Target: Adenylate kinase isoenzyme 6 homolog
Amino acid sequence: MTAREWPNILITGTPGTGKTTHAALLVEALQQAPETSAAPWQHLNVGDFVKEKGCHQGWNDEWQSWDVDEDKLLDELELVQGQGAKVLDWHTCDIFPERWIDLVVVLRCDHAKLWERLEKRGYKLNKIEENNEAEIMEVVLADARESYAEEVVVELRSESPEEMEENVGRILQWVHGWRANNADDSDDEA
Ligand code: ADP
Model:
């Protein structure tokens, strides 16, 4: 059982599925809801964190991304995840110690829609193709299921603003449940 007062949530999925948008909306909702507003909720965009903290071995021009130094990243994240109330947002889900994460949300999107989103973002063709194929092959979902207990992983569709709103509402409800269970546990121990 975790000693955290508030849970850590990982929002993952192929690039373009809506992780950053979901994480921002979720943190806003958590900060506003009376049941959760007491916690210091923070959106941690792991890609930005890698850049800010220099957790990389340089820029990979072919793939237009940083070559991540995973050991350094884990050391830096170890310092911030402990207090809980973090919404982590990253396309990789299998490098974190299982004990850090209480809920893994895997966002999914129709591949034609995803292609459009990545094209709009100005990605090079090889990067669009690679990501599109990864989404079709359910790579992130398989990694999540391999790395976390079954009940921790939830797959949600992210193809419309309505779905996004519904997803945020579901995660908010889950946080309420998590708090209720943890409060029960501390009562039991008292
Ligand atoms: P990621 O963080 O997974 O790379 P983003 O959150 O940056 O994805 O979203 C990529 C683009 O797709 C943005 O323009 C965003 O507004 C759009 N988008 C994401 N999810 C949805 C959704 N459920 N409905 C409509 N547009 C979405």
Q: What stands out?
A: The first strand starts at residue 9 and ends at 12. Residues 103 and 174 are 9 Å apart (CA to CA). The two ends are 15 Å apart (CA to CA). The chain is about 50% helix and 15% strand.
